[in-house]
Design brief:
The chain is of the alpha+beta class. The protein contains 2 helices and 3 strands. The chain has one domain: Ybab, Chain: A (2-Layer Sandwich), CATH 3.30.1310.10. The chain is 57% helix and 19% strand. The chain has a 3-stranded antiparallel beta sheet with strand order 1-2-3. Helix 1 runs antiparallel to helix 2. It is rod-shaped and about 65 Å long.
């Protein structure tokens, strides 16, 4: 039982380290002149829109949607990869 408690403590410590890494990781996605940057926790860090993208409202809306979705998907993949590295050695099934 003491061994399981040690494993849980180790897992909790590693989870905190991963959270720090995710916070410091910046993921950029671009779509038709729209650049979105999110961190690994999927918090928006910045949005840049070039002048050409402003000319067509519908195209801008679509570009924003696609850029955000790309960035979020990339951040989810990074988070999953980090968690897989932790969960595997602990004996937990992969996610």
């Amino acid at each position: 039982m003491f061994e399981k408690a040690k494993d849980l403590y180790k897992l909790q410590k590693q989870a905190k380290e991963i959270k720090k890494k995710l916070k410091a990781t910046h993921i950029e996605a671009e779509e038709n002149g729209v650049i979105v940057v999110v961190n690994g926790e999927q918090e928006v860090q910045s949005v840049q829109i070039n002048d050409e993208a402003l000319e067509n409202k519908k195209k801008l809306e679509n570009s924003l949607e696609k850029a955000f979705n790309k960035a979020i998907k990339k951040s989810q993949q990074i988070g999953a990869d980090l968690m897989k590295d932790v969960m595997g050695p602990m004996g937990f099934p992969s996610m």
